[in-house]
Amino acid sequence: MKKILVWLWLCALPAVAQQHVEHLVDLMARRLALAPTVAEVKWNNHLPIEDPAREEQLLQRVPENERAFLQAQFEASKQIQQQCRENWVRQHSGMFASAPTLAEIRAQLDQLTADMLTALEAARAELAQPGLLEGALKRYPETDAWNKALEPLR
């Protein structure tokens, strides 16, 4: 009986590992999906895309080994925000009435970032296993921003 339980446990390990990686990738995708809304908030408030002081403040809160990952998420989001802004300038867009406040969007981003960093820690060992990251990425289209976000994981 004990051998059967150990065998079942060993069989379940790859599925659990895949779940950790998929959870991390899903959170990354959710954070990137907020980038157009972040761009709207910045557009409405006449704020620049770049906010080095805020980025540095957030980076200082995380361990050194997570900073490259977090910086990549910032850069990917800024790529999307810049694309949005360029489109809006060309279209002479006005204000976005449905955009949240700066405080509201930051609260969402902060929560997703915290969740992502927790998921990164849970998936760290699994990310070194061949094929797990690629398997989790099959549901997402490849874009420049997405590739930027994934750089530290590859």
Count of distinct structural domains: 1
Determine the number of helices (DSSP H or I, runs of at least 4 residues). Answer: 7
Helix content: over 70%
Major sheet: none
The proportion of strand residues reads: under 5%
- Quote the average pLDDT: 90
**Name of the CATH first level:** Mainly Alpha
Distance between the termini: 40 Å
Total number of strands: 0
Shape: globular
Broad structural category: mainly alpha
H/E order of the elements?
Answer: HHHHHHH
Provide the CATH topology.
Chorismate Mutase Domain, subunit A
In the CATH classification, which architecture applies? Up-down Bundle
Low-confidence stretches: 5-13
What gyration radius follows from the Cα positions, in whole Å?
Answer: 18 Å
CATH homology group: Chorismate mutase
Describe this structure in words.
This protein has a single domain, classed as Up-down Bundle (Chorismate Mutase Domain, subunit A), CATH 1.20.59.10. Helix 1 packs antiparallel against helix 5 (102-127), helix 2 packs across helix 4 (64-91) and helix 4 packs antiparallel against helix 7 (144-150). It has 7 helices and no strands. Residues 5-13 have low confidence and may be disordered. By secondary structure, the chain is mainly alpha-helical. The radius of gyration is 18 Å and the shape is globular.
